Amino acid sequence: MTSTELRAEDIRWDLTDLCTGADEARAEWTALVERAQELASRYRGEVAALDAAGFRALLDEADDLEQDLSRLQVYSYLRLSMAAAEVEANDLATFTRDRAAEIENALVFLGLEWIALDNDKAEEILSSPEIAPYEHKMRVEREEKPYVLSELEEQALNARRPTVLAWQALHDRHVSTLEVPFDVGEGATPHTISQLLSYLYRPDRDIRQRAVTALFDGLAPRADVLAAAYDALVGDRLSIDRLRGYTNPMQPTNMNNELDDKTVEAMMAATEESYPIARKWLDAKARLLGLDKLELADQYAPIGDARAFTWPEAVEIVESSFGRFAPRLAEIFRSCIEAGHVDVLPRPGKAAGAYCTSVSKTILPYVLMNYTERLRDVSTLAHEFGHATHNVISLEQQTWRSHRTGIPMAEVPSTFAQAIADDYLLENESDPGTRAALAADRLENAFAAIYRQTVLARFEQRAYGLRSEGRSLAAERLSELWVEENGKYYGDALEMPAGYSLGWSYIPHFIHVRFYTYAYSFAQLVALLLYRRFREDADAFAPKYLELLAAGGSASPADLVAPFGLDLRSTDTWREAFAELDALREEAERLATQAAQ
Ligand SMILES: [Zn+2]
């Protein structure tokens, strides 16, 4: 039976590649903890005395162990994703968390002793051929060395962790427990934030507008607490930055992402310069919707009317679009489906959304879907298999430790895979409403990733700036910043309602990982740049692109994209991406106008 003959309801995860059951998982965990402790007993305190060959043996052993750890973690995680309320899955998740923490504690010496080595000794090891498969990651680890404090200081900083987590939990709770009465037509019922936000994609303008009003009316009484949590966290981060010697509040995130400050600034400046591309689309969208001017509630109003896509159709689209780009990608896609590594339909108790998780060098990744036959689900399938193919191809070439990239690069292949599936769809779809919907979706997703996330990062920069000048981040001040930064983006093309000044208040990234949001802009823009190279010369591009996938996380983002002639520190490079984005805008406008006739 070929994959396209499989019916969606037949396709659930087969977890036997990971583990046969919860009892076996527990037994394996116990053995793995012992293995980690035994490894630590041989090497703890000895790293400085190892030569390159000895160090390589240690890294290989840790790499093997971490893949078994990953396999058992994924097993437990997938069990919970399939049945959030199942007692056995929850018990196993708790057991897994505890054992994983024990293993992490046992192996923490490796990173600490590596960072503690003096530079000459470390360089001697790093430049030896034995270490080549690990070199880049080991270098990156050492870059933190100047910012690490003494052991006692680090312990004291760790001791404030529960307090930091409490501020985050307070914010999360205030956001997740918010329920606002809202009436879609059958009487008012309590709605969460994400339920209200989902109405912004409805064709009915009245529902969209009322959802926006309800959301911000609901947030208003909580704004002071949400601001206080943010103020406390920003203040804490800034004082720790001073102790460690960071020179700006973005630096820790940039270092984590292996992007230098200049690259990030060049990208953000080019993005701001091209805000008019979005405004042109918003003006066109107002015309298409028959409005004088868009309001915030109209930003994601549907354009066109997409038909439904069955699961076999979605499989065919992804497989064919991957196959004509590079047969190897289609092969991996098919293998994962045939191995039972894709769970397709929504079910009660199953986790929401979609994800792809890599397991190890010998086991194919697993993909979670909640397929409901929408056009957007087809794109999501391509997206997740962009991740899956990246995982498989990088793990063929790299060690476990070296296969994973930072967050900004990790989203490049998934975004690129979406683009090639979208192209295939557009070429083969005859329904004008579906074509318009696809082109508009593609464009608006790119705007949301590139522009909105840049607005968010600029807002954060200004908030950190004010806080470091000794001013508190009260709700009114954050609202002012928010309106100013959003105003730079929307200009006159979109009306922001008064309530939108609280738009900052429920965004989890601000609370959990500062400056996380620009990673989305980065991934979209780099994917657009690669896509441009692909369109210029498809034959020369594909083999180079497979090399990029195979490189995994074994080089910095700048080095990974250098073979495509991209210099990420140059504003001109980023400007090229916006030429590509503008072409997508023109196409969306053309197809939407055709569909409306
Ligand atoms: Zn992704």
How would you characterize this protein structure?
- The chain is mainly alpha-helical.
- Among the domains are: 3-157, Up-down Bundle (Butyryl-CoA Dehydrogenase, subunit A, domain 3); 163-304 and 438-518, Neurolysin, domain 3.
- Helix content is 67%, strand content 3%.
- The chain is built from 25 helices and seven strands.
- The strands form three sheets. A three-stranded mixed sheet has the order 4-6-5, covered by helices on one side. It has a two-stranded antiparallel sheet with strand order 1-2. A two-stranded parallel sheet has the order 3-7.
- A hairpin with an 8-residue loop joins β5 and β6 (366-368).
- α1 runs parallel beside α3 and α19 (432-468) crosses α20 (475-490).
- The longest helix has 37 residues, at 432-468.
- It is globular, with a radius of gyration of 25 Å.
- The model has no long low-confidence stretch (mean pLDDT 95).
Write the layout of secondary structure elements.
Blueprint: H1 22-43, H2 52-82, H3 87-116, H4 119-126, H5 135-142, H6 151-159, H7 161-176, E1 180-183, E2 188-191, H8 193-198, H9 205-219, H10 223-244, H11 251-256, H12 261-273, H13 275-289, E3 294-295, H14 311-325, H15 327-338, E4 342-343, E5 355-357, E6 366-368, H16 375-397, H17 400-403, H18 407-428, H19 432-468, H20 475-490, E7 494-495, H21 508-512, H22 518-536, H23 538-551, H24 557-561, H25 571-596
Parallel strand pairs: 3-7, 4-6
Antiparallel strand pairs: 1-2, 5-6
Helix pairs in contact: 1-2, 1-3, 2-3, 7-10, 10-19, 12-25, 13-25, 14-15, 14-16, 14-18, 16-18, 16-23, 18-19, 18-22, 19-20, 19-22, 19-25, 22-23, 22-25
The chain binds zinc ion.
